[in-house]
């Protein structure tokens, strides 16, 4: 990516955005999570039965609320690596280990996020692709998440 290289401050803010988006989800901190996203976001969750589509920021809250039916959820993000970046664009990847529990049933997924970011007043997520490494447990919980997400954005 030619252009002006990312500063240390840019890299920190990018890593902070990648680390925070799942923490805010698990804690139900929707407004803080929303601040991390751009006006349009390209999501790709085809690896777990979801869709690849562009979603407007205004559609995010209904999607997230539809997904928050679990008794407990924890997304652990780690090994954030900035792959490329210059000027107002960057791309990072990170491991994610997610456990979600409902009525004593659990679904666990391990994977990699590929996150695209765009600098506006600060670095915002404009793309999010999930790739599965492994998953186990009650996969009907995954199917329920995908159904609820799709229904929330019809």
Please explain how this structure is put together.
The structure is a single chain. The protein is of the alpha+beta class and 154 residues long. It is 31% helix and 47% strand. It has four helices and six strands. It has a six-stranded mixed β-sheet with strand order 2-1-6-5-4-3. Helix 3 (60-67) runs antiparallel to helix 4. The longest helix is centred in the N-terminal third of the chain and has 20 residues, at 8-27. The relative contact order is 0.21. The model has no long low-confidence stretch (mean pLDDT 91).
Q: Helix and strand string, N-terminal first?
A: HHEEHEEEEH
Total beta strands: 6
* Helix coverage percent: 25-40%
Spatial strand arrangement across the major sheet? 2-1-6-5-4-3
Strand content: over 45%
Enumerate how many helices there are, as a single number: 4
Envelope shape? globular
Major sheet description? 6 strands, mixed
Distance between the termini: 36 Å
Mean pLDDT: 91
- Helix- and strand-based class? alpha+beta
- Please give the radius of gyration in angstroms: 15 Å
Poorly predicted regions: none
